[in-house]
Amino acid sequence: MSPAASGDQVQDALVDVDVDVVVVGFGIAGACAAISAAEAGASVLVVERAGAPGGSSALSGGEIYLGGGTPVQQACGFDDTADDMFAFLNAALGPHADEEKLRVYCNDSAEHFRWLVDHGVEFRPSLYDAPTWMPPTTDGLMWLGENSWPFDTVARPAPRGHRPPAPHFAGKLLMDALVAAAEDVGIRTIVDTRVSSLLVESGRVVGVRVRHYGEERELRARKGVVLATGGFVDNEEMLAAHAPALLGHGKVSDGLDDGSGIRMAQVVGAATRRMHAHEVALTVLPALAARGILVNAHGQRFINEDTYPGTISHAAVVHQPGPWWVVVDEAGFDDVPAADLWGVRPTHAAETLAELEADLGMPPGSLEATVSAYNRCAEQGEDPLFHKAARWLRPLRPPYAAVDVAAGFHPGDRDSAAPATGVAGFTLGGLHTSVDGEVLSLTGAPVPGLFAAGRATAGMHGDGYISGTSLGDGSYFGRRAGRALADS
Amino acid sequence: MSPAASGDQVQDALVDVDVDVVVVGFGIAGACAAISAAEAGASVLVVERAGAPGGSSALSGGEIYLGGGTPVQQACGFDDTADDMFAFLNAALGPHADEEKLRVYCNDSAEHFRWLVDHGVEFRPSLYDAPTWMPPTTDGLMWLGENSWPFDTVARPAPRGHRPPAPHFAGKLLMDALVAAAEDVGIRTIVDTRVSSLLVESGRVVGVRVRHYGEERELRARKGVVLATGGFVDNEEMLAAHAPALLGHGKVSDGLDDGSGIRMAQVVGAATRRMHAHEVALTVLPALAARGILVNAHGQRFINEDTYPGTISHAAVVHQPGPWWVVVDEAGFDDVPAADLWGVRPTHAAETLAELEADLGMPPGSLEATVSAYNRCAEQGEDPLFHKAARWLRPLRPPYAAVDVAAGFHPGDRDSAAPATGVAGFTLGGLHTSVDGEVLSLTGAPVPGLFAAGRATAGMHGDGYISGTSLGDGSYFGRRAGRALADS
């Protein structure tokens, strides 16, 4: 779409805008809000700043966290319940996850699966059964740590990562389906158009001001506005103020997650919540890590290497001194499927652990003590420290290799010019909303006419994060927001 | 002061209020703002919610972080510079400390020492030369980690914890002096009076609304208002929204740190910053820890045990799985001065490490490996992992003892009815202010007539905290706010 064409479209759109609902942002939250509002009878206009729909969602892995007994789970031989799903997420997204949001999300999850399928999203009934960021296959189901310690002690394990059929990044397929579904229900869209502020009359949000090629226009919405503008990882000033842990790292975004929706809502009195919360990702190389050990700069293990790499990344980046190394032996390295290595080769190799720890700058005896304790227990099929599953336990034998898991590929890291910290992330904090997406003010009362969903809001997350829960809460609470606004 | 008497005083005060500046809160930030405003020629009224001045400051240890060559430092034989002080604080309060505030704070620190002394605060010229939370002596100077790794590698070590002459808690002496100084310069005070909101006219803060025994009155301030209302550790809803890590723990406060100033400023458009940041304290028993080793639930060391206990607490509570244990031997335990033990006795004792680790619920061999590596290096006067100073390095010999450092005394923990997590803390995030205490709005421009200081603001702190920097930034930026408002 050329700028001129989109400019004309905006002019056309601006001339005859007459809608119930304006949705700002056409990622997954905006798409689902728009579809639901339209299906509830509202006329809907979606305003997207980029040249095409999709947002950061389209660049993602495309996993959606779904459970409670979906047809895909059943086809793969797993029983699941909303209660097990809740128990797992409350642990994995916690401590301090939002239990109210989590409860409705889990209770409605099987229904949400059907809704997504009904709107064109495909999930194939096969499981990718090994630790990974994103399967190199078209399998529709994956584990996100449910079968690993300590999560296997708080809920009956069932895989709940549902994904469209694409190797690695499946977000494009997901968004193609939802954008097509939105078009099918008659939603109007204007692109290349930036919303600069909210229109407020007598304390009620009644539309938005847009800027396009320097021209400012007002778009009125009879019922109100849904902000689905994304997070703020692309706004350095907001990061410094609220989520400094992400400063200097790579950004998992489409480059437009600048917090604009959060800021324009704050100006009209909206409250925020958990603005420090964030996802972080390291390469980790999960298939390799599971076959070896992961250690911090002191040569200490700190987590079971077979859990979800997002959980490993958070444990490493937030809590452990780096660099972080996977130490493996030859047999372990050779056992990794090529597609799961992302072309990474060991950066260090040595015949003895004394040599390797010296090469890695660790104190004498540190890595040796760790491997010796690991091997002693692995021989008996045990990992008393971190409970890695027996499937992945095997004593490490010389020669040894080490891989810097902050080097190489980063899931979703868009910005190759970013400082080479080996870490990339996005923000999880944002506007304070009710379970129906009402934006709440500093006093706790809804801001009339204003709804929000997705990463512009503080979602279900506490201190933890699991892939699929951002697309998950964006889509599910986007639907709730769209419907609630249409019904208002 | 009886309620009736203070009620009458409020009535009297309300009848004839005619001031330039209203300061809300009479902790250290409010005291210093009031004094400075008065000394710059303004008439000042301080409104305090409690029955007497002092706030949380009066319940604290009373350390103020000062350096750059104070007379007390010089008398104790230490040269110091503002640059070394800056380098240390930037590391200890970081990452992501506020370098602009830190720079003026360090540059003016020797002058700030003189100002405090000129206003009646006494600091005796002697050093308490061992790791401690609060010296059991009247020494005026203490270390806050400056001489421990890694801080000794980023700045020339000099002790900078300055404290009034009281064993342990010296905050009362500190506040007695500053309250007296405030009275000396003619500041009026009303107590038992809650400020409910800010008075705004034409976008400018022109006073406050107060509530006293159900009656609401307006107090006008010709120049403006300084909010020195403290943090929000006593507000569970704000903790859940912004600093959930403190939920369920003890509170270091006077019970009135409910974020009222932050909230009333937000309502008139103020921005906040770093609302998640917080201090946390564990018992630690620093004198004991320095003589032994500190390990996490896996029996792993994670920090040099001779650094400041606040730094140890943060490392443990935020980053390491608990419980956290100090493991010592008999010689180490017997070497601790009784006054530094706070009556704590070992909870576990054993002849062998195998026995002890079993008693502590650690996997076989875990603690043994840690102690073996520690002893091997300690024999050579080295700690290659965490660089504990040679002074405290000595191999541990049977019999061994372990102390749960989350049990027992907690510095400043007011609330003995709190859940027995063994952790207590307070909040460090708050209003976004300029170096002169102007409260900044969501757009970054000052809110006319509104200033703030102390824990109602986001101070100099990044992710770290060192004792003395809260009283330090409260007093220093309180002064700047009072002067800037008086001069406005």
TrEMBL record, chains A, B:
Residues 20-470 form the FAD-dependent oxidoreductase 2 FAD-binding domain. Keywords: FAD, Flavoprotein, Oxidoreductase. Signal peptide: none annotated. It comes from the Bacteria. It holds the Pfam family FAD_binding_2. GO terms for biological process: steroid metabolic process. Its cofactor is FAD. One of its GO terms (molecular function) is steroid dehydrogenase activity, acting on the CH-CH group of donors. The keyword Transmembrane helix does not apply. SUPFAM superfamilies: FAD/NAD(P)-binding domain, Succinate dehydrogenase/fumarate reductase flavoprotein, catalytic domain. This is FAD-dependent oxidoreductase.
